[in-house]
Amino acid sequence: MKISASLVLYKNNPEIIRETVLSIINTPLKINLLIVDNSPTSDLEYLFKNLNVDYYYNNGNNVGFGKAHNLAISKAGKSDYHILLNPDVYFDKDVIPKLINYLDNHRDVGLIQPLIRFPNGEIQYLCKRYPTLFALFARRFLPKKLHFMIKRYLDWYEMRDMGYDKITDVLYLSGCFMIFRKKYLDEIGYFDEKIFMYLEDADITLRMAKKYKTVFYPDVEIFHHWAKGSYNSLKLTIINIQSAIYFFNKHGWKIF
Question: Is the full-model pTM beyond 0.70?
């Protein structure tokens, strides 16, 4: 069995990156980890000097989340499974083996994701139904203190009704941690490089779900720091809006 993994960096916290990389390295399965660094400088390279990973500095070019992962996937060559993860997650050594085992026994599944928690143990409700214009607008622009007004709708969008305690087919899985059956990923195509960042995970999940199952698997869990960068940056907010417009033009507009 061959397993590859990709990690994309952009001026991330070195201590958190190391935690992520060690989670992969400490997994008992052999994993070929490829790191693409979109940062302005290669200052983060020192983190990997004595680790068995492939580091690629992108010459200061921030090509975006999806395109950088595509670069890593292409460099990985042939593999049976490909793991995609953010540089702000960490997990126990048995997580990936259990997810791979599920994929081994369910050939109709093309993409799987575990339960995701905040470092304090609270669940991150990252499984979602098809994105709607209202949900994206409310989550980004409506003040948090007013979310109680549309709580029932947001809970529905985040699939809280499923309880996050059973294996479920999901149309929109988070890009912070995904495991693909590589053969199926090759078939449907990698990330849409016209999406610089945001909703690229919705796009690839939807494309996979058209042919194969995309599964939430809560029997194992990971931890995710989740920075929510666009909430504090006008530039990232604009990128988020552009990505949403492109996504809706591609897949179909849904207001509510």
Answer: yes
Give the residue among 86, 45, 81, 48 at the shortest CA–CA distance from 69: 86
Does residue 125 fall inside a structural domain?
Answer: yes
Q: How far apart are CA 35 and CA 153, in angstroms?
A: 38
3-state percent breakdown (helix, strand, coil) of the chain, nearest 5: 40, 20, 35
Average pLDDT, the chain: 96
**CA 209 distance to own-chain centroid:** 16
Q: Is residue 228's pLDDT more than 80?
A: no
Structural domain includes residue 99: yes
d(Cα 181, Cα 36) in Å, to the nearest integer? 21
Q: Is the pLDDT of residue 144 over 90?
A: no
| CATH code for position 101 | 3.90.550.10
Domain count, the chain: 1
